Structure formats: C-alpha cells, structure tokens
Amino acid sequence: MSQNNICLPYFDKLLEQFRQGDAETLQAFGRHVHWGYWENPKTADGTVSDFAAAAEQLCRRVCDAGGVKDSIRLLDAGCGFGGTVASLNERFSNMALVGINIDERQLNRARAEVEPTNSNNIEFVQGDACQLPFEDASFDVVLAVECIFHFPSRERFFQEAKRVLKPGGKLALSDFVPLPLTYQLMNFVGQVIQSPVGQTYGQVDSRFTLNDYRKLAKDTGFIVTQEEDITKQTLPTYPVVKRIFGQMGGRVDEKATAEVELASSLGLLRYLILSFQSV
Ligand SMILES: C[S@@+](CC[C@H](N)C(=O)[O-])C[C@H]1O[C@@H](n2cnc3c(N)ncnc32)[C@H](O)[C@@H]1O
After folding, report:
1. How far is the CA of 120 from the centre of ligand 1 (A)?
2. What positions does the domain Methyltransferase type occupy (predicted)?
C-alpha cells in the first residue's frame, strides 16, 4: 500500500519486480507507466523494447498537445516514475519541471533516475493532484498522462489546474473515455470494467465521457483545443502488458488488461488525448 492509503496494486508489484531485478519489467515500465503509441500499429513486433519506444511516443504526443516549449514552468500531475519529466528534460532546455505524485515510493525512484540537464530545474513533490501545493498562476503547462482516472475527482483536478495555470496556459492529458452510451449501458460497462480492473489497477473511474469533458472544461474556465482518438494506435500495447502482468502473480494478472482491451477493440472505450486552454 502506498502513502495516503491509495491502493495501486500494479505499482506495488512493479516496485517488487524492480527490487528483484526483473529486467523485462524494468525495461517495460521503469520509465513510463502507460500505454504505447504506434503511428502504424502493424509495425508493432510485440517486444518489450518496441513497447518502451512506443510508450515514449505516447508521452511525446501528450507533451505536443500541451504545446510544450523551452523556458516554461511545467507541472506533470500523477508523474509516475518521472518518465515524462525525463523525456522533457532530454528534449527541452531552461525549463522548470515539477512532478507531483501521491506515492512517495515512485517519487524516490524518479528522484534517483532523473538528473537535470540542458539548464533545466527539476523537482518531485509528494501530493494529491486534486489539492495542488502550488501558487496561483505559477505554471505555463499542466500535463496528466494516463492518470486522471485514479484521481479522487476530475472536477477538482480541473479546478486546481485552472488555478495554478497562468492565463492562456494549457492542460493536456490522456484518458480512457467511454462512448456516450445510455445510462444503463454505461453503468454496465462501468461494472464490467471495474471488477478485475480494480484488483490490478486499484481505484479507477473510466465513466467520464467526451461530453462530460467538454462540459467540465466550460464550467472550469477552459476551451477545448484538441480531441484526438488514438485508440487504434494504442492497441499493440495489450499483448505486451497482458504477458508481463500475467507473469507477475499475486493480485496483478492479465484479466484486467484483457477487459480494457476488449472494451477498446469493441469501440466502447476510446483512448483520447485532450488538451485545453485556460481562458
Ligand atoms: C498509470 S500511472 C501514470 C504515471 C505517469 N503519468 C506515466 O505516464 O508514466 C498513474 C499515476 O497516477 C498517480 N496518482 C494516482 N492518484 C493520484 C493523485 N490523487 N494525485 C497524484 N498522483 C496520483 C499514481 O501514483 C501513478 O503514478
């Protein structure tokens, strides 16, 4: 169990595998803990190195959606092991990069792994993305790469992102977004996805639709600047993650990932990159 009593069984297991020197898991998830992006999914070869390269591509696409450039102050919310901060640190200069994560254990790894370069300044801070310990109007960009479904409330996160962003600042994120189905079907999908998903991934809420995002943006003082469906480009992720998680044992298995794969392949759940500008 991580700090703040947030239950993230897959992170418990990843950290255990790293401690045991599991080279494959380290290569797959030592930097980024999110899905991959393949411009042409047919080129995916199922190897862990191919998956790690695709995960870097996904991270870069979210950064692009946020309009990241040199010399800005950027917050990466739900920063995992610091993979997005590491990528930005390698590619941009004169940046103030701040990662926030609820789980101090992940931050310890991030602090050990990510060395500032290119005149960048890097800080990893423990805290809740829905209660940001930062001043108003202190960031140019806020990112949330594949983590908002874990947050206690998307509404509170958007309000906090709006508060800490400078006027005109950008929020970019990736998320699993269900199709706007009827309430009953949505609930059914939510339950199907929830049960095994909870066992491996912990608290996850993937019932927030694109229309919910549009309304939330409007209500919290953002305009939508990008809505990109990359579901197809993420599909080669599933065989790799199922294989690695399937070998881990304990609470973590491949069932949860297979459920998400099924929902994604059927088009019930889409993987979206969204960006918003503070107005
Ligand atoms: C799927 S991982 C993504 C990690 C990272 N963004 C990446 O792309 O590698 C989800 C992350 O959200 C973090 N998280 C969950 N709830 C959080 C919260 N309330 N505030 C901040 N971080 C949170 C988890 O600890 C984990 O690092």
Report:
1. 22
2. 75-172
